[in-house]
């Protein structure tokens, strides 16, 4: 079992965030479906990894567009189980 690489995971999360932001501006059903598959693949990868010994300083935002909200929430739950903290929704932090 591989140890969770938090840095690589956050790079993937950032790319997914950028993708979701772009798709909110220019919706495409095929791209949303592909994004959902990417989120599920990352969740599966993280769930199969072993929790690392080093504390993870960065957190993951738990808000997501409606098109991928359920898949994103599942990914966030997996990340929380692996020691990555959940951040409040963007609007709630203001």
Beta content: under 5%
So what's the overall shape? globular
- What would you report as the Rg, rounded to the nearest angstrom? 13 Å
Mean pLDDT: 91
Count of domain modules:
1
Q: Total helix count?
A: 3
- Please identify the structural class as seen in this structure: mainly alpha
Distance between the first and last residues' Cα: 40 Å
- Residue share in helix: 55-70%
Largest sheet: 2 strands, parallel
> Are there runs of 5+ residues with pLDDT below 50, and where?
none
Number of strand segments: 2
Kindly list the characteristics that best describe this protein.
two-stranded parallel ribbon, 3 helices, globular
Could you please describe the fold and organization of this structure?
The chain has 94 residues and is mainly alpha-helical. It has one domain (6-93). Helices cover 55% and strands 4% of the residues. It has 3 helices and 2 strands, in the order H-H-E-H-E. The chain has helices at 6-25, 29-47, 69-81, and strands at residues 60-61, 86-87. A two-stranded parallel sheet has the order 1-2. Strand 1, helix 3 (69-81) and strand 2 (86-87) form a beta-alpha-beta unit. Helix 1 runs antiparallel to helix 2 (29-47) and helix 2 (29-47) packs parallel to helix 3 (69-81).
């Amino acid at each position: 079992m591989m140890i969770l690489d938090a840095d690589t995971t956050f790079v993937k999360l950032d790319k997914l965030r950028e993708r979701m932001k772009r798709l909110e501006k220019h919706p495409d059903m095929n791209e949303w479906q592909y994004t959902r598959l990417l989120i599920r693949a990352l969740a599966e990868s993280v769930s199969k990894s072993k929790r690392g010994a080093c504390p993870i300083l960065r957190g993951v935002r738990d808000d997501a567009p409606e098109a991928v909200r359920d898949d994103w929430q599942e990914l966030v739950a997996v990340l929380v189980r692996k020691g990555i903290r959940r951040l409040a929704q963007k609007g709630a932090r203001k």
